[in-house]
Amino acid sequence: MQEQNVEMSKATLNRLPSYLRYLYQLDKKNVPTVSSTTIANGLGLNPVQVRKDIALVASVAGKPKTGYATKDLIADLEGYLGYNNTRDAVLVGAGGLGRAILGYDGFRNYGLNIVAAFDVNEESIGKEVNGKPVYHLDNLDSVVNRFKIRLGIICVPSVAAQSVADKMVKAGIRAIWCFAPVHLNLPPDIAVKGEDLAASLALLSMQLTTSSLNE
Amino acid sequence: MQEQNVEMSKATLNRLPSYLRYLYQLDKKNVPTVSSTTIANGLGLNPVQVRKDIALVASVAGKPKTGYATKDLIADLEGYLGYNNTRDAVLVGAGGLGRAILGYDGFRNYGLNIVAAFDVNEESIGKEVNGKPVYHLDNLDSVVNRFKIRLGIICVPSVAAQSVADKMVKAGIRAIWCFAPVHLNLPPDIAVKGEDLAASLALLSMQLTTSSLNE
DNA sequence: CAAATATTGTTATATTTTTATCGATAAAAA
DNA sequence: TTTTTATCGATAAAAATATAACAATATTTG
Fold it and tell me: Does the distance separating the beta carbons of B99 and A97 come in below 8 Å?
């Protein structure tokens, strides 16, 4: 639906969700328009950078002296980030973190829908978590194929992560979100996003020592 | 303890944990030395970039034709990233995600120690999660002060996040890791890392459509 | 209605980050 | 022992990214 043929830098792409979060806040306070300067100040960025980022996604030009219509900007960002198109995903590993993710209904607002979970632990198999069925891992291939699912979430312990990732790829998964703090060896055409939460927190913790604040 | 006075870019800092994950894997296979080319190939990076990153943290020079000693490099990275110094943290919001984080023992390997959790839900107060006590939120200030804690983790619903963040800052917290997908308005000297998991997954999902793979 | 002002979008400049090049060197091979 | 090779570290070039400068233009103020 939305065009992404314009050159969109990695850095810009990572900033877009933060703009959106900021705009939601303004919209809730019924602020009808917003300037690049306001956004920049709110997020600690440069106003020109904000304008340039916005120019890449906005369908309507901003008005001098006024800025952008908050609701329009929200709609454009949501559209660009694909929050309007639903995409299905599967999750493997219905332990603590897996169940927490299954239990979070907010994914729907981002166009994401976890259709099923998989595990090898007989305790959880056959039950549901937040309305989502938990199947045995052996059924992964069948479900992924049947529903043509491309997105996989790994919440298993580190030792099992590579094996699960391999199974996912074999089943047809093309992008993997991995919470196990390990390096996955996968074909280069598979998009992998490692979410090493502990390392992420450690990085934040480092900033306390260094007192150099980088986001 | 470790010096960070050399100019370390944001981008480099984010790559360091991935080097470490990759090196752990090699070390487990008893690979004694590793070259920048090997690491770069494994992680899809440029070898020169890897060498430069390593130069900023390594205490020993690499040897021509051989590379770096795996264990030395691991030690240097762990040291630089502060995985050896323990730092305490508190967590607010003992719901699904909060409990999952409390239940994860791996934080210890990163020098992180969650000392207590806080909530307002009478159900969980007074109990323990993975050996960590859950107190009423009213006790946050007292605990943070008593143990001189600087690091706070927010796992409450979005509507409560700002209020919890304010309480944390008032209590003396200097760095906040926030899982609620909202923009927090806080003094500029407070380090904030927003962990918008759904947005993160949505970004990964976008790559499926665009088929341009950026990490 | 004219002047002042805030803001946009664009073009130009500066900075940062990445990648390429190259001489030096340790290990391996001839 | 000499030659070849893989690799490092440093410097140089290129690419990407961020910031500054500025003309154009709505809105507000006098």
Answer: no
pLDDT, tens digit, for every residue of A136-145?
Answer: 999 999 999 9
Map out the domains of chain B as residue ranges: 10-80, 87-199
- A194 vs B: CB within 8 A: yes
Nearest nucleotide to the CA of B63, by C1', is D8
In whole angstroms, what is the distance from residue B40 CA to residue A172 CA? 26
Entry pTM: 0.94
Percentage above 90 pLDDT, chain A = 92
> A208, B150: Cβ pair inside 8 Å?
yes
Question: For strand C, which nucleotides have at least one atom less than 7 Å from a protein CB?
Answer: 5-11, 16-21, 24-28
Sign of CA dihedral A57, A58, A63, A66: negative
Minimal Cα–Cα distance from A95 to chain B, Å?
8
A88 contacts on B by Cβ (under 8 Å)? none
Classify domain B10-80 by CATH number: 1.10.10.10
Size of interface A-B (CB pairs under 8 A): 200
Q: What is the mean pLDDT of residues B154-170?
A: 98
A31: CB within 7 A of chain C nucleic strand: no
Residue A213 pLDDT exceeds 80:
no
Q: Does A79 touch chain B (CB under 8 A)?
A: no
B213 touches strand C (CB under 7 A): no
How confident is the model over B43-84, as pLDDT tens digits? 999 999 999 999 999 999 999 999 999 999 999 999 999 999
Burial B182-212 (b: 16+ CB within 10 A, else e): bbbebeeebbbbbbbbbbbbbbbbbbbeeee
Q: Which two tokens stand for residue B65?
A: 């034709």
Fold entry, domain B87-199: Rossmann fold (3.40.50)
| pLDDT digit string, tens, across residues B3-43 | 445 678 999 999 999 999 999 999 999 999 999 999 999 99
Q: Which of A211-215, B83-87, B196-200 has the lowest mean pLDDT?
A: A211-215
Which has the closest alpha carbon to B109: B89, B126, B136, B84? B84
Which residues 102-161 of chain A have a CB within 8 Å of chain B? 103-104, 106-107, 109-112, 150-151, 153
3-state secondary structure of A97: helix
Q: How far is CA A79 from CA A34, B31, B91, in A?
A: 19, 47, 34
